[in-house]
Structures are given as C-alpha cells and as structure tokens.
Amino acid sequence: MYLLTDNIDDDVKLKLVELGQACSYLNMPHMVINGAVLVTVKEILGHKTMAMTLPYAHLSSSY
Asked: What's the pLDDT score for residue 2?
C-alpha cells in the first residue's frame, strides 16, 4: 500500500505532526466549550493523565 507520506523527508513528516498537534490544541477549547467530554479531549490530545487535560475544564459549563 502506498502512503502519501512515503516520499516525504523525515523533517517534513515531523513538521506535519507538529502542525497536526497545533491544530488539535487550537480546536480543543472550542470542542470543550461546545460540550466535548474531557476524557475524549484527553484521548485526542494524547495526554497520559487527566491532570494534563484539566486546564481545559474551566471552559466547560458541566465541570
């Protein structure tokens, strides 16, 4: 199977991963404000502990 990233340099792949992470972190506050469950946010962001996700809690009306 051919992947789009097969012919991309490792440095470029790293930048794409960083860009994806940046987009996730920019969108998470909006998701929490609109009712996303913090456990889901934790999983999407790849946080190992809930303590890493708790700073988003103040944005939610249910926490």
From this structure: 45
> Structural domain boundaries of the chain?
8-59
| Best CA proximity match to 3, nearest among 45, 19, 13 | 13
Q: Which two tokens stand for residue 19?
A: 């860009």
Residue 56: burial class (beta carbons within 10 Å; 0-12, 13-18, 19+):
buried
Q: State the DSSP H helix or E strand holding residue 34, giving kind and residue range, or none if neither.
A: none
Mean pLDDT by groups of 10 residues along the chain of 63 residues: 60 68 75 84 84 83 63
Q: Encoding tokens for residue 39?
A: 């456990």
Cβ distance 44 to 24 under 8 Å? yes
